[in-house]
Write a structure and sequence with these properties.
Layout: H1 3-15, H2 21-27, H3 43-47, H4 53-68, H5 73-80, H6 87-94, E1 99-100, H7 103-110, H8 113-124, H9 129-136, H10 140-151, E2 160-161, H11 162-172, H12 176-192, E3 201-202, H13 215-221, H14 237-250, E4 260-264, H15 281-286, E5 290-291, H16 299-303, E6 307-309, E7 318-321, H17 323-328, H18 335-350, E8 364-365, H19 366-378, H20 392-404, H21 415-429
Antiparallel strand pairs: 1-8, 2-3, 4-5, 4-7, 6-7
Helix pairs in contact: 4-11, 6-11, 7-18, 8-10, 8-18, 9-14, 10-14, 10-18, 11-12, 12-13, 13-14, 19-21
The protein binds calcium ion.
The site of calcium ion has 8 residues, from loops.
């Protein structure tokens, strides 16, 4: 049987449910296999795929699911021939950074005079920006900020086979439904003919091109901005930037509004208001919160509702963030990322990096981050998953704990705060259930001084 014929036979068998071997066997007693009888080849055999059984087993099952979803067999063959799992993807998928880079260190590393200068030069070379801004309402400087962080202005896009990366992630299983849906979208990208060539490349996590769009996002938001009829987010900066603008516009970008402004806080300010109420700048002004540069609010910003951000806690800079800041988080759900895109944009606009006095922050180890989350949980708060990733929920849990303990509620995980959380959780975990069980409890820590 020729390979293509065999695949066709397999596709019919898959659609007829022949891959559900257990069901078929339950109905009919299995016929004994005669010695020397041909064994039906599996899709992984016919595709020339290789790898551990976890990978080929997944591939054989996914092949049937892809056919059932209507993916043409020839397309599957084109995309998945010779497939094997990518060990680099597996390593990334399970990697946990031992030390979390503090926000200040991340921002300072990303925003340099050289990068601002390069961004200005690259921005000014793109003639399509007026049309992109007019159509989507997203300022060019924000888009260049995304471009800088996602691919270093197109230089570092990732050159891994998207089908191989997503197949590896799907086979590993932790994010299988997501990875399989992106694989199905990848087939659609190929089938659409919108992408140039027959080969999709990108990062280990499936993000593609100069603005690192997932295949499903490419399908939904991909734009041809240079007019050649293709959406080439790999080779065409205007296409990549316009597609990113489309994504941000659909995520709710508010035309004419800013993203955030740095502000000063008065003495005795209630830090518990951070990441809290969204209020207009004049309402914040009544609490003594004013722009650090003294410039008045624009009309659009003055009418928008802003949330207070303290990325480094009470010791660092404060920002009033407008809804557009949270739209940037739809690109990458990270405070540090969205803050950096915005500050890069401010830098491109001004032609120089923003001058912000970032404090020195101590990196937190993975053990410390996990201990902080599990301690908050032990103490009855909800930090979300115990995964070592300090996000909005973990900060919310810390803020609630700080308020309950009459501490400045800045939701900042300092080493001192984590030490106290661990001590209180340990004391709470061995709180005496009865008079005879109190002997092993460590001493409750004494008075704590917030730094
Ligand atoms: Ca194009």
């Amino acid at each position: 049987m020729r390979r293509r014929d065999a695949l066709f036979w397999l596709s019919r068998a898959a659609l007829a449910g022949a891959f559900a071997g257990e069901t078929a066997l339950a109905q009919d007693a299995p016929a004994p296999i005669a010695p020397g009888a041909p064994v039906a080849p599996t899709p992984s055999d016919l595709l020339g795929a290789s790898g551990e059984p976890y990978f080929t087993d997944w591939l054989n099952a996914f092949y049937a699911r892809a056919l059932a979803a209507g993916v043409p067999q020839g397309l599957i063959e084109q995309a998945l021939s010779g497939l094997s799992p990518d060990p680099r993807v597996a390593a990334h998928d399970t990697a946990q950074p031992e030390f979390a880079r503090p926000v200040s260190a991340y921002v300072e590393a990303q925003i340099t005079p050289a990068r601002i200068a390069q961004g200005v030069t690259r921005r000014d070379a793109i003639s399509q920006f007026p049309a992109i801004e007019d159509r989507f309402g997203v300022p060019r400087d924000i888009l260049v900020g995304v471009w800088a962080l996602e691919s270093e202005f197109g230089r570092l896009q990732g050159d891994l086979d998207i089908f191989r990366s997503l197949s590896t992630l799907a086979a590993l299983g932790r994010r299988r439904p997501w990875a399989e849906s992106e694989l199905l979208a990848s087939f659609q990208v190929l089938q659409s003919g919108k992408a140039p060539g027959t080969h999709l490349v990108g990062s280990w996590a499936g993000a593609m091109g100069q603005t690192q769009l997932l295949p499903s996002v490419y399908l939904a938001d991909g734009v041809d901005a240079d007019g050649d009829g293709k959406c080439d987010i790999w080779g065409s900066a205007p296409d990549a930037l316009a597609s990113a603008a489309n994504l941000l516009a659909k995520a709710g970008w508010r035309r004419g509004e800013g993203w955030a402004r740095q502000v000063t806080l008065p003495a005795g300010f209630d830090y518990g208001l951070a990441e809290g109420p969204a209020e207009a700048p004049y309402a914040w002004a009544e609490r003594g919160v004013t722009p650090i540069d003294g410039r008045p609010w624009t009309g659009a910003d003055g009418a928008a509702e802003a949330v207070l951000l303290l990325p480094c806690g009470a010791q660092g800079p404060a920002f009033l963030a407008f809804p557009n800041h949270f739209v940037i988080r739809r690109y990458n759900n990270s405070l540090a990322y969205a803050l950096t895109v915005g500050l890069l944009a401010d830098g491109f606009f001004a032609g120089a990096p923003p001058q912000i006095p970032w404090p020195h922050e101590t990196p937190l180890s993975l053990d410390d981050r996990l201990a902080a989350q599990s301690s908050l949980k032990t103490l009855g708060y909800d930090p979300g998953n115990i995964d070592g990733i300090i996000g909005t929920r973990a900060r919310g849990a810390l803020r609630a704990w700080q308020k309950a303990n009459h501490l400045p509620a800045d939701a900042y995980f300092s080493p001192q705060i984590i030490a106290r959380l661990k001590a209180e959780a340990a004391a709470s975990a061995c709180a005496p259930a009865g008079p005879s069980e109190s002997g092993n409890c460590p001493a409750t820590p004494g008075a704590f001084t917030h730094p």
